[in-house]
UniProtKB/TrEMBL annotation:
GO BP terms: DNA restriction-modification system; methylation; negative regulation of gene expression via chromosomal CpG island methylation
Tagged with keyword Metal-binding: no
Protein name stated in the entry: Cytosine-specific methyltransferase
Annotated source species: Chlorobaculum thiosulfatiphilum
SUPFAM superfamilies in the record: S-adenosyl-L-methionine-dependent methyltransferases
Active site as annotated: C120
């Protein structure tokens, strides 16, 4: 294969899906995302890739060390690279502007692939359980209609559309399944679609996370689904954290930290490590006495029975969350002896997982860097805030919402094989 295959990422988030395709050798033309903090993360990531390709990664290192402001760092980067991240909400009013910007970035080239999935809240089972209207009428239910507009305009050979398991059962106010409507609309625009449920722990990711991955192909072919190759690395959670400095609640820094020597294989095979770029965002949030008491209960339950804590089983004085029907396991154990953890979710910023270290009993929330490793983001990936001041909440939200990078890479590798 000669030229790199080009792709457009819609509803890009912090770029987990995109990063997997970049690692597989695809070339991003543009990312479209409405969240401003995530767009800064994408700009910083695209800047890193561009600087690395130009042999100038030292500017990225200076930025992570705090020797350059974000403005000064971006000044070292091509304006086209920075402009390839389009901070817009996709809708009728914004489509002409977004199309114009993408057309300029393509500059006459063919777009080979579109990837991305609309925000999952409208389809998720949890989202429906929390919303009094069961998400019926929520505009996010219909964002796939705009996705089809991009297919109509750019006519890529393939597209990859990812979403949560709830998509399989979500229906509109008349009881019609959204998935069937999507498939019908994509077919009307010239694409056959096939889908599979992929569970991330089957592809080397050390957490349990199921996603519906729809692949569309232009034309009328069927039987084209690029089923990724499975990988069971046979490592536990401790191995992916073992080189990070031990912390207690409230300890750590957002800037570079010195990691310990690593003699394992998973971090290398999963392409997590980069010995030339500092590791950042290893900072645990402080915990109040109530959290610490809940952590102690949960850890004792895990150590004695290998059982998860049900939030509703806590003493009444410790149950302060109003919503007790969904997220009953809001305090999740990330234990060192687990083959994989529970899903790392966006609400970790508020609800918190906690980590059991084999040598010191770390009853604390996990750090953004630990969450990023569970999502298989490489250590050189930096998560931005709006202001440029590092913030755990922004980082956790972006990490939690992302597609695990390694899962995306497995999908991308297989797509290149069938191209």
């Amino acid at each position: 294969m000669g030229k790199k295959l080009t792709f457009l990422d819609l509803f890009a988030g912090a770029g987990g899906l995109s990063e997997g395709f970049i690692k597989a050798g695809f070339e991003p033309v543009a990312h479209v995302e409405s969240d401003t903090a995530a767009c800064y993360t994408l700009r910083t990531r695209m800047s890193y890739h561009w600087l690395a390709s130009c042999g100038k990664p030292e500017f990225y290192v200076k930025y992570l060390k705090g020797d350059l402001s974000r403005t000064d760092f971006y000044a070292e980067v091509s304006e086209k690279v920075l402009g390839s991240v389009i901070n817009e909400e996709i809708g009728t009013a914004t489509l002409p502007k977004i199309f114009h910007l993408i057309d300029e970035l393509l500059d006459g080239r063919q777009l080979d692939l579109i990837i991305g999935g609309p925000p999952c809240q409208a389809y998720s089972l949890v989202g429906r359980s929390r919303d009094k209207n069961k998400m019926i009428g929520d505009k996010r239910n219909y964002l796939y209609v705009y996705y089809a507009e991009f297919l109509k305009r750019y006519r890529p050979k393939y597209f990859v559309f990812e979403n949560v398991m709830g998509l399989l059962s979500a229906k509109d106010k008349d009881g019609n399944p959204y998935l069937a409507a999507m498939i019908d609309l994509f077919r009307k625009n010239g694409y056959e679609t096939e889908y599979e449920i992929l569970s991330s722990e089957e592809y080397g990711v050390l957490q349990s996370r199921k996603r519906v991955i729809i692949v569309g192909k232009r034309g009328k072919d069927t039987g084209f689904y690029p089923v990724p190759d499975k990988w069971n690395p046979e490592v536990n959670v401790q191995e992916i954290f073992c080189d990070l400095p031990a912390l207690k609640a409230g300890e750590g820094v957002s800037g570079p930290v010195q990691v310990n020597p690593y003699n394992g294989k998973w971090q290398v095979t999963a392409d997590i490590r980069n010995e030339n770029i500092p590791v950042t965002l290893h900072q645990a949030r402080p915990n109040n006495e109530q959290d610490l008491e809940i952590y102690r209960i949960a850890v004792e339950l895990w150590n004695s029975k290998k059982a998860r804590l049900n939030y509703n089983a806590l003493p009444s004085r410790l149950k302060t969350h109003k919503n007790r029907e969904s997220f009953k396991d809001r305090f999740k154990v990330v234990a060192s002896d687990l083959a994989y953890s529970h899903t790392v979710v966006a609400h970790i910023a508020k609800d918190g997982h906690y980590y059991i270290h084999p040598d010191i009993n770390q009853n604390r929330s996990i750090t953004p860097r630990e969450a990023a490793r569970l999502q298989t983001f490489p250590d050189d990936y930096y998560f931005e805030s709006i202001s440029g001041v590092p913030a755990r909440t922004y980082a956790f939200r972006q990490i939690g919402n992302a597609v695990p990078v390694l899962l995306a890479r497995k999908i991308a590798d297989k797509m290149k094989e069938v191209w």
